[in-house]
Amino acid sequence: MVGAVVVNRGRVVGQGYHLRAGLPHAEVLALRRAGALARGATLYVTLEPCCHVKKRTAPCVPAIVESGVKRVVIAQFDPNPSVDGRGVAALRRAGMSVALGVARREAEALNEAYRHWMRTKRPFVILKAGMTLDGQIATSTGEAKWITSVSSRRDAHRLRAEVDAVLVGVGTVCSDNPSLTARVGARLLRRAKKQPLRVVVDSHLRIPLNANVLRRVQGTHTMVATTSAVPPARRRALARRNVEVLSLPAVAGRVSLSRLLDELGSRGITSLLVEGGAEINAAMLRGRLVQQVRLYIAPSLLGGNDAKGMIGGNSPRRLTAALKLRNVRTRSVGRDIVVEGDL
């Protein structure tokens, strides 16, 4: 996520942002709009300008040099190994004044998914859950619609539209039959322009063939992650529905979530939203595979030992084993409270 602004004698004369891969970069757009007013101006940019050619667009450094810009202010280095300081060095060799680190923390927050993917080659994982004030995500019978408010659901759909992929376990598919599409509007009926890859973890391929997540919807693609032990006939049945079946190694009879993240990362998936039930939440958290949580908390209480908690499996015996959140943020959405934190 990159933005750029050209300022000449205290006046903004050009600005731009990078819309998506393959389109002109923010710096190029800002300089085009500035035109001749870029000469002698200052260019402010949230990410180090690129200088390599291993991509679909031309490098930005030559365009900056040719524009006549005198000074460049950069918020953060580009963690891409093909850049990583080389853009700054090229600008300085061209005789430009370069300032680094202005609003660095804010810029890094904008690009935390990209930075994580560049560093680990895995997607940045956000675990999201809607729950009651006492931490329950469903009643003893599995009823979960709707614990949180319409305002919270709108907010969650906006998050879906921002990530590259959304993941659930087959248990959630069987109990809730979600579509896993990003929808917008007052009644959440209109699909967003950008749709995430829909990923279902199903170790034994028991997903119903009439599940909503398997339906062909324009702009969507579904992947079912399973193990090599499942019958070929089930694979073929899913393939006939244009569903990708991904076979991965098993750990204790279940899909290796670690290998799944490796595979998604290799496909350029930089961000992943986990919207599963208690068991997939537990597996992701205990595998230390989650970077951030977002909890939508309704002002209601379910109680009971048989309600469904957010994290399944066995509880640790000692408080010292609890996962601690960092950089905790809270905000109100309708009647609910949203708690976000990093792991």
Order of helices and strands: EEHEHEHEHHEEHEHEEEEHEEEHEHEEEE
Strand order of the largest sheet: 13-12-11-8-16-6-17-20-19
Percent in helix: 25-40%
For the biggest sheet, the summary is: 9 strands, mixed
Q: Which regions contain 5 or more consecutive residues with pLDDT less than 50?
A: none
Q: Structural class, from secondary structure content?
A: alpha/beta
How much of the sequence lies in strands comes to 25-35%
Distance between the termini: 22 Å
* Rg estimate, integer Å: 23 Å
Net shape: elongated
Strands, total number: 20
> How large is the count of helical segments?
10
What tags apply to this protein structure?
343 residues, alpha/beta, 5-stranded mixed sheet, 10 helices, 20 strands, elongated
Explain what this protein looks like in three dimensions.
It is a single chain. This protein is α/β, with parallel strands linked by helices and 343 residues long. It is built from ten helices and 20 strands. The mean pLDDT is 91. The two termini are 22 Å apart. A nine-stranded mixed sheet has the order 13-12-11-8-16-6-17-20-19. The protein is 26% helix and 27% strand. Strand 4, helix 3 and strand 5 form a beta-alpha-beta unit.
